[in-house]
Amino acid sequence: MRAPRLLILSPIASHPADQGNAARIQALGTALMARGIRCEFLHFATEGSTPGQRAAMAGFWHGFHELPPAVIGEPSLPGGWGIDDWCPPDLAERLAALQRVRRYDAVLVNYVWLSAALEGAGGAFRILDTHDLFGGRDAVARAQGLDPSWFFTTIAEERRGLDRADLVLAIQGEEAEELRRRGGAEVAVLGHMPPLRFLAGPQPEPLVPFGYLGSANPWNLAALRALDTALAGAPELPWLLAGRVLRRQDIRLASRPRLMPHVAEVAAFYAAVDCVLNPMAGGTGLKVKTVEALAFGNPVLGTADAFAGLNAEHPGHRCADAAALVTLMREYRASEAFRRELRLASRRLALRYAAELAEAQDALAARLRALAA
Q1: 85: Cβ contacts below 8 Å, ≥ 6 apart
Q2: Hey, do 5-192 and 197-353 end up sharing a CATH topology, with the first three levels equal?
Q3: pLDDT, tens digit (0-9, with 9 covering 90-100), for 49-97
Q4: Is the domain 5-192 a CATH 3.40.50.2000 member?
Q5: pLDDT for the residue 179
Q6: Which CATH class is domain 197-353?
Q7: DSSP SS3 for 141
Q8: Contacts for 210 with CB less than 8 Å, ≥ 6 apart
Q9: Residue 266, pLDDT score
Q10: Which residues touch 362 (CB under 8 Å, ≥6 apart)?
Q11: Where are the domains of the chain?
């Protein structure tokens, strides 16, 4: 039997995997290719690309194709985006041209706002990887006191996009239930977890007791400011701040963390800190920084929102807010028993979740193999 052929369309470059969405795309490709699926990548370069990125993607995927970005116009809805406002009208035809030559068994489109491209899939099985809920996302942001950013639309518009697919992938179980209410397509859960690095052996001695790694999106900025406020009067709790969030010039932090602005490899951050913090409040999707920290084997302290979709049980994985998280940071510093307990709970959670994810990846690969049979 020939290998199934899958085309993955993404507005995000798969390399480098220095943000959550890119890490998910790259990890899914790795998992499917390891299961015998021939994966090609069509990069709709909304954020551009560098020669280095293009070389890395061409070397990773079985086939690499790239389209230039398109100009995004004004929102077509009052106060919001229509489902196709970020999707150029000719994207479906560009995909169809590839399909006529390459004859894919399935096409997987990342993000519901590019779902119109599925109309160019021809007779291929159509998969939509949602990453997040975008219908009503602006209301979720405003409920947290944040201005809506990036793409958001109405639930009715999102439904139009979902209904273009044969299979919709949700990144976690709670969102899968909501997506089933919103659209008529079949919905399956397919999460994200990097390789479990802690299984490789002992880790280096950390330099700082606590650390936070984040990009500069509004959710992370709000979480960082809440954590800084809670730590402002706690000099006995030294911590490290790293990642793209440090590119913001307007950040003023009263708690005076150590800074790691340049993180070429995230492994350097996880080696530098003992316990990883995630004070996220609200938000949607899976918190990739949480599963990444779990995969590296670090004990993790976070809010319940930071562990959404992970079936966490330990109190350190269910803090009510940043202030409660800081209370447990003090306990972590004071109690060796608590440190051992949190590390064990974090690693057990990583192992359980990785096993669930592997089953979901097996199931998707089996469906793709059946298409080629």
Answers
A1: 72, 73, 75, 76, 113
A2: yes
A3: 999 999 999 999 999 999 999 988 899 999 889 999 999 999 999 999 9
A4: yes
A5: 96
A6: alpha beta
A7: helix
A8: 237, 238, 239, 240, 273, 274, 275, 276, 277, 301, 329, 332
A9: 86
A10: 35
A11: 5-192, 197-353
